[in-house]
Amino acid sequence: MDFQEAIDFAVAHEVPWPRDPTCDPARWGVHHADPAPFNRLRGPVHERGGVSGVIRAGGSEAAAWGEPDRADLTFSVAKTYLALLAGLAHSRGLLDVNERVGNRVPGIGFEGAHNGQVTWTHLLEQTSEWSGTCFGMPDTVEHNRRVSHDPKPPQGAKGEPRQLQVPGTYWEYNDVRINQLSLALLHVFRRPLEEVFREEFLVPLGGGEGFAWRGYDDAWVTIDGQRIPSVPGGSHWGGGVSISARDQARIGQLLLDGGAHQGRQLLPAEWIDRMRQPCAVAPFYGWLSWLNRDGAMFADASRESWFLVGAGGHYTWIDPANSAVAVVRWIDPARSPGFVHRVVRALARGS
User: Which of the residues 17, 52, 259, 286 has the least number of beta carbons within 10 Å of its own beta carbon?
Assistant: First the structure.
């Protein structure tokens, strides 16, 4: 299969962010849209590479470009990594997706008439409506947030508090609530999530070089006498996952293969299947992943396709219809449909 046209297109359409976040801070990141004083970075960030990526077809690497082994920030792709950790915890009997989170991890903000209703499923599908402050960030800073693949128009200005709905009845892309999920998972595993993810997924898949999952400067908790960082599910306010394109492709292959790798089940196939099921009130979304069932996300991609997406032009595309995984990084998001179109055409020519 010849993916050169898709590669050339991606390289020619790099996201218009500076490669060094310190040289032109106003053009780097997504935090600028937040109301003050929350429109600032709270965790470390670092220089990025150029457009890079990996395409796998039939279980093997078919193409790679840029710096595929460079560990770069990947923003909200990390949300899906939290879903994988939740699946690992579920497989070990450490949580039940239908239970109320406060019953499993009391004392961290899942109490009361409203927050006490929140289940793990609500957090995974972003319908929790959790209300409160997580490491100094109020959930309201993300009220009325608009993200590119959300068809629902915002109900007000970004950061303008709105009326909360019953948990499970309203979908909102909210990074504060994602960070609250991460905190809950930290209390479930009782060890750094960075270590768990590396040891349970990346190392068995043959990866992990350069991988890091960093927290905010002040987001630390003490569990069993150990001071541990609580990591964010993205890099909205800094920190987050730094990972290579090849490792992202390895994770994508694991999802394509139903959680199995070389005869070992790293995650239950049932969990992977559930991640792809549409949310009742947001059918374009599964469990911390984006779906393409109606073709609204990418018209040229198969309807079985699903995506891990991060700000700054990060996409991990899992395509069961073509037994393919494609990772592209630092592409201008407005140009991502052109990349998908060219990959689909190459796959069709090669089949």
Answer: 17
